[in-house]
């Protein structure tokens, strides 16, 4: 029992040690100075998934394995795979970012009528991780976040690439892959908010 507890503690410690990496692709953080509201758009095109040629191959494999055990469950998996984006990942990203600003100094959201700028979150890599009780692994996403004026999407004001945004539940309570991935989006937006606070001055 003690060995299992030690292993769990080590896994959690490694989660905190491994930090996200941010690499500016275009512009400068200072370009975001004074922007208080962003319209959010999410992009999942050309999504890379480990061990698979593309997302289509991933879905085909996962659906086939599920249908073999339980006919019809493959389509349910596919439907939830896409539904989780709007139902879980995106709300988590928005909530995690906005709560970092106690006085609403900066806010993000979908279809903000008075926002002049758009923030595009392009997820380029996604790993769901796993949790089978005694062994688990965090989810992980990479994303490129770009900012531009609503009416000038081809003129990027600022762009930053984040790698290794990891997600996990408290005390290893994250058996659902959609939940683990949503936590990775929460950590991604938390880091983004911290960087804007620190660097966009």
Structural overview:
The protein has 201 residues and is an alpha/beta fold. It has a single domain, classed as Double Stranded RNA Binding Domain, CATH 3.30.160. Strands 1-8-7-4-2-3 form a 6-stranded mixed β-sheet. A hairpin with a 4-residue loop joins β5 and β6. α2 packs across α3.
The CATH architecture name reads 2-Layer Sandwich
The H-and-E topology, N to C, reads as HEEHHEEEEEEH
Biggest sheet record = 6 strands, mixed
Give the C-alpha Rg.
18 Å
Question: Which band does the percent of strand residues land in?
Answer: 25-35%
Gap between N and C termini: 50 Å
CATH class type:
Alpha Beta
Extract low-pLDDT stretches: 5-17
User: What class would the helix/strand composition place it in?
Assistant: alpha/beta
Number of helices: 4
Strand order of the largest sheet: 1-8-7-4-2-3
Question: What is the CATH topology descriptor?
Answer: Double Stranded RNA Binding Domain
Number of domains: 1
Overall body shape: elongated
Total number of beta strands: 8
Helix content: 25-40%
Averaging pLDDT over every residue, what do you get?
89
Signal peptide: 1-19
Keywords: Signal
Protein name: DUF4410 domain-containing protein
């Amino acid at each position: 029992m003690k060995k299992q507890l030690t292993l769990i503690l080590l896994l959690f410690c490694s989660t905190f040690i491994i930090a996200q990496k941010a690499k500016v692709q275009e512009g400068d953080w200072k370009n975001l100075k004074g922007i208080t509201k962003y319209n959010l758009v999410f992009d999942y095109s050309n999504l890379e998934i480990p061990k698979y040629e593309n997302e289509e191959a991933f879905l085909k494999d996962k659906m086939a394995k599920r249908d073999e055990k339980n006919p019809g469950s493959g389509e349910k998996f596919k439907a939830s795979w896409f539904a989780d984006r709007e139902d879980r990942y995106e709300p988590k990203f928005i909530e995690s970012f906005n709560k970092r600003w106690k006085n609403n100094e900066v806010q993000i959201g979908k279809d903000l009528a008075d926002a002049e700028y758009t923030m595009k979150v392009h997820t380029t890599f996604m790993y769901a991780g796993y949790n089978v009780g005694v062994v688990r692994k965090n989810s992980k996403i990479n994303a490129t976040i770009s900012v531009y004026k609503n009416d000038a999407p081809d003129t990027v004001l600022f762009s930053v690439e984040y790698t290794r945004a990891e997600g996990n539940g408290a005390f290893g309570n994250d058996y659902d892959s959609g939940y683990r991935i949503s936590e990775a989006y929460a950590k991604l937006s938390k880091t983004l908010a911290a960087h804007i606070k620190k660097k966009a001055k």
